[in-house]
């Protein structure tokens, strides 16, 4: 490896729904991290790799930092905190379209003791006027001291090159951590389970999205019809939630399967046969053993 090659890890942090996952999917030019308007969509630390001729950037998508209400929430915050201690740079993202608020100020205070370089990014600039952006920029300057403040649009990639140039300044010289053909460190089973969970978040409301976990039980390519058989269990906390996921005459789970199948086939590069099962595991979010079994 040439001595002028840079490599490093960059954490992307922010409140839920500010656009962290959309940013990373845009950077790697592939859908790996799921997206939803529901809080706590991202539950795991996901590393995604961006390669340039002279640099390898490993972006880490983190759960939205929030005030936890249960053991799962505490685990998500711990994931964020541990990530901040292990990276070379931090992107602190806020939603410029909804305005900088108390949640952003709370996270800014949590970041005050971090010695890692922090870049403050105002996302969703495509949704606001220049005057509105300027007003949010002034508010952003009051959040703390940062290595840079800039606006981007995760949706269309506006100003990404400026952001990347800024990040590279803080990365050390070093080797590649991942081969060129690797875009994420997560196994296929995890990504597939997330695609299924994303469709549940999209199609359901109220308490259902927060009470669902998905575990892929099997990926089997031995079928004679050249289909890959994928079998997954959707866990919920209540019998009533199981009924909602299945839906009248099985219509809801059928729609979840149809929508998830498209993303899974794009990931695997093959047609699949998807089997979904729904099981009740009471109060799994509050049980340490259940959380471990589900990968949290």
How are the elements arranged and paired?
Layout: E1 6-14, H1 20-28, E2 46-52, E3 55-61, H2 71-84, E4 89-95, H3 102-111, E5 118-123, H4 130-141, E6 148-151, H5 160-169, H6 188-203, E7 213-220, E8 228-236, H7 239-246, H8 251-268, E9 272-280, H9 288-293
Parallel strand pairs: 1-3, 1-4, 4-5, 5-6, 8-9
Antiparallel strand pairs: 2-3, 7-8
Helix pairs in contact: 6-8
Write structural notes for this entry.
The structure is a single chain. The chain is α/β, with parallel strands linked by helices and 296 residues long. It has two domains: 6-169, P-loop containing nucleotide triphosphate hydrolases (Rossmann fold, 3-Layer(aba) Sandwich); 188-293, GMP Synthetase, Chain A, domain 3. The protein is 35% helix and 22% strand. It contains nine helices and nine strands. It has helices spanning 20-28, 71-84, 102-111, 130-141, 160-169, 188-203, 239-246, 251-268, 288-293, and strands spanning 6-14, 46-52, 55-61, 89-95, 118-123, 148-151, 213-220, 228-236, 272-280. It has a six-stranded mixed sheet with strand order 2-3-1-4-5-6, sandwiched between helices. α6 runs antiparallel to α8 (251-268). The longest helix has 18 residues, at 251-268. It starts with 5 loop residues before the first strand and ends with a helix.
């Amino acid at each position: 490896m040439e001595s002028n090659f840079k490599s490093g890890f960059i954490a992307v942090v922010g409140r839920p729904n500010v656009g962290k996952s959309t940013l990373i999917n845009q950077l790697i030019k592939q859908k790996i991290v799921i997206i939803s308007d529901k809080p706590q969509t991202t539950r795991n630390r996901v590393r995604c790799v961006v390669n340039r001729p002279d640099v390898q950037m490993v972006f880490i998508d983190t759960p939205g930092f929030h005030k936890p209400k249960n053991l799962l929430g505490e685990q998500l915050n711990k994931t964020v905190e541990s990530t901040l201690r292990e990276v070379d740079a931090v992107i602190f993202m806020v939603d410029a379209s909804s305005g900088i608020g108390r949640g952003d100020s709370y996270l800014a205070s949590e970041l005050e003791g971090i010695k890692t370089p922090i870049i403050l990014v105002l996302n969703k600039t495509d949704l606001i006027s220049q005057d509105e952006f300027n007003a949010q920029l002034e508010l952003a300057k009051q959040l703390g001291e940062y290595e840079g403040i800039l606006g981007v649009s995760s949706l269309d990639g506006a100003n990404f090159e400026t952001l990347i140039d800024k990040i590279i300044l803080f990365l050390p010289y070093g080797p590649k951590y991942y081969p060129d053909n690797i875009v994420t460190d997560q196994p296929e089973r995890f990504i597939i389970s997330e695609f299924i969970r994303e469709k549940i978040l999209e199609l359901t409301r109220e308490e259902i999205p927060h009470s669902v976990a998905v575990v892929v039980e099997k990926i089997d390519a031995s079928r004679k019809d050249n289909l890959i058989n994928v079998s997954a269990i959707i866990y919920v906390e209540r019998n009533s939630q199981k009924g909602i996921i299945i839906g009248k005459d099985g219509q809801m789970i059928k729609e979840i399967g149809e929508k998830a199948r498209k993303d899974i086939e794009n990931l695997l590069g093959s047609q699949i046969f998807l089997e979904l099962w729904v099981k009740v595991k009471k109060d799994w979010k509050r049980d340490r053993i259940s959380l471990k079994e589900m990968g949290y």
